[in-house]
Amino acid sequence: MGVDFLAELGVGFLGSRLKRLAERMQADAAEVARSLDVPVQPAQISLLMTIRLHGPMAVGELAERLQLAQPTVTRALGTLEDFVEMRRSPDDQRSKSLALTEKGEALMVRIQTHLLPRIERAAASLVEGLSGDFMQGLAKVEARLAEASLMSRIEAAGPPAMWVRNFSDDLAGAFYRINAEWIGDMFALEENDIALLSKPRELILDKGGVVLFAETPQLGVVGTCALMVSKDGWVELTKMGVLKSARGLKVGEFLLAKTLERASSLGFGKVYLLTNKKCAAAIHLYEKLGFVHDAEIMRLFGARYARCDVAMSYRPA
């Protein structure tokens, strides 16, 4: 590779370098999308995902959530009329909100199942092991991308053996079923369990939390885990379970790692969990990924479940 004149211009041209990096990566992502017959651009997927997870919402709210200029969002939505529609509020007929159409919902299932897991693994390989000075790290990402494009990394990795899906209303039943299975096998469902499992959108997502699922090509959705915003800045990692039919596939470790990555990306600085000594394998996994036993968490939150006799905390990097 020849001299990188843009890199020589220094940190004052960071925006230009990030734009160049984004264009190179999005070009490959768009090619993968075309190969999978995904009829939208990668830059538009963030709009669709936000509407799916947090909609219906007004155009202004969508722009605010993504921290984009409203005209930029409006232009992007102009080519998504098959997948996004304006709906009038039942409480105020003058108010209109963005929502996914049936085609939009079906498209997002395809994107989360087939496209995003491929791109995520390839992008992760570009930033793996980077530390220290940001500009040096950026130069390494650019060098790695020059050595092997995002497209070639996606092709080399092949179809993912397991991937993460975000919550959608069609997965509410899986959230209940997976957790009810393991809790019922070891304990008894408590009132707090039933409330959270029955209303994950209202009690978790609408309050700023997250519900993730692990899916495999052979078995479908096999595991789930949630991050629930709690008081005093704490976030509870809760309702983590894996179907008995998927045990031995390391679904729990995969799902826990992805959930902690999401906590870090969302700026959740204090994460805790409540469990029971009978869940020895899970406790070992929590310890392996950085949780520590915490008497203060037990004092603050332990009374939420009758079965709780172990409390742990984690500080995302």
Q: What order do the strands of the largest sheet run in, or round the barrel if closed? A: 3-4-5-6-7-9-8
Return the structural class.
alpha+beta
Span from first to last CA? 34 Å
Instruction: Find the count of extended strands (DSSP E, 2+ residues).
Output: 9
The largest sheet, given as strand count, sense and whether it forms a barrel, is:
7 strands, mixed
How confident overall, as mean pLDDT?
Answer: 90
Shape: globular
Distinct helical segment count:
14
Indicate the radius of gyration in whole angstroms: 21 Å
Unreliable sequence segments: none
Strand share of the residues? 15-25%
Strand/helix succession: HHHHHEEHHHEHHHEEEHEHEHE
Q: Give the helix level as a range of percent.
A: 40-55%
Structure description:
The protein starts with a helix and ends with a strand. With 317 residues, the protein is an alpha+beta fold. Strands 3-4-5-6-7-9-8 form a seven-stranded mixed beta sheet, with helices on both faces. Strands 1-2 form a two-stranded antiparallel sheet. The model has no long low-confidence stretch (mean pLDDT 90). The chain has helices at residues 5-8, 14-35, 42-54, 59-66, 70-77, 102-127, 134-147, 150-157, 172-186, 191-198, 200-203, 251-265, 280-288, 295-301; strands spanning 84-88, 96-100, 163-166, 210-216, 220-229, 234-242, 270-275, 292-293, 310-314. α4 (59-66) packs across α5, α6 (102-127) packs across α8 (150-157) and α9 runs antiparallel to α10.
